[in-house]
Recover the amino acids of this structure.
C-alpha cells in the first residue's frame, strides 16, 4: 500500500464524521472548562487495602469520611458516592492501636474534580490477631409451660459452632445463643430450626446455617397422697 493510498483510506475516509467528532469533543471540553466551580460534600466509606490475612480491625465503629470537593458544576452535580473513595494502606500492619492521616492523596476522584477538605482528617483504629474457636450452642427458650409440664432436655445439632473475630473478643465468648424458641403449650418432643449468633458485632459465626434445637417436655411428677398429707 502506497503512502497516498494509506492517507486516503485512513485519514480522508469519513473525514466529515471525524471533523464533527473532534468539534464535539472540543466543545465539551470548552463547556466544562468555562463552567463556574461548584462544591459538594460526599460521604464515603474508607477502603482498607492490603489487610494482613491474620489481622482483624477490633474497633467497634469503623469510621467513614466526608469529602468536600470542588470542580465544574456539571461534574459536581453528577458526582455519586461510588465515584469517590478514600483508601488506607495496611501493608505490614501489626496488632495494636494506630492513627491514620486522611489526605487528598488518598482520595480517588474523577478528572477535573479535586479535594477541598476531609472530615475527619484522622482516624484511630485498633487491630488484633484473627482467632477462631468452637463454642457451645445455648438455646434461648421462652414461653409459658403447659400446666404440669417442665423441660426434660434440650438438644442442639450441632452442639458447637465455630466463630471468628479479634482474639480478645473471641476469648470472652462463652457460647453462641439461638434466636428465641417459644415452648408455650408444648407437651412432647419438638424440633425447631434457629440461627445461632454472638452479640458482639465483631464476631461472626463461620457456618451461618440454622441449628436444629430439640426440646423434650415431661410431665411433672404428681405428689403422692402421703407427701401431700405431710
Amino acid at each position: 500500500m502506497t503512502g497516498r493510498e494509506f492517507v486516503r483510506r485512513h485519514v480522508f475516509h469519513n473525514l466529515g464524521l471525524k471533523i464533527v467528532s473532534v468539534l464535539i469533543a472540543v466543545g465539551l471540553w470548552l463547556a466544562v472548562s468555562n463552567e463556574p466551580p461548584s462544591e459538594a460534600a460526599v460521604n464515603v466509606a474508607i477502603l482498607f487495602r492490603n489487610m494482613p490475612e491474620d489481622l482483624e480491625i477490633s474497633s467497634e465503629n469503623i469510621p467513614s469520611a466526608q469529602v468536600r470537593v470542588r470542580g465544574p458544576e456539571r461534574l459536581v452535580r453528577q458526582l455519586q458516592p461510588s465515584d469517590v473513595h478514600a483508601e488506607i494502606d495496611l501493608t505490614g500492619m501489626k496488632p495494636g492501636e494506630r492513627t491514620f492521616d486522611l489526605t487528598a492523596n488518598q482520595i480517588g476522584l474523577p478528572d477535573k474534580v479535586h479535594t477541598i477538605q476531609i472530615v475527619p482528617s484522622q482516624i484511630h483504629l485498633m487491630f488484633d490477631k484473627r482467632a477462631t474457636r468452637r463454642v457451645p450452642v445455648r438455646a434461648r427458650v421462652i414461653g409459658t409451660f403447659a400446666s404440669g409440664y417442665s423441660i426434660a432436655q434440650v438438644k442442639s445439632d450441632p452442639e458447637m459452632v465455630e466463630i471468628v473475630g479479634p482474639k480478645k473478643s473471641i476469648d470472652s465468648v462463652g457460647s453462641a445463643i439461638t434466636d428465641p424458641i417459644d415452648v408455650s403449650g408444648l407437651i412432647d418432643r419438638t424440633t425447631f430450626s434457629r440461627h445461632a449468633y454472638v452479640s458482639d458485632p465483631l464476631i461472626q459465626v463461620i457456618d451461618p446455617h440454622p441449628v436444629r434445637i430439640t426440646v423434650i417436655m415431661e410431665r411433672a411428677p404428681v405428689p403422692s397422697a402421703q407427701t401431700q398429707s405431710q
Summary: The chain has a mean pLDDT of 85.
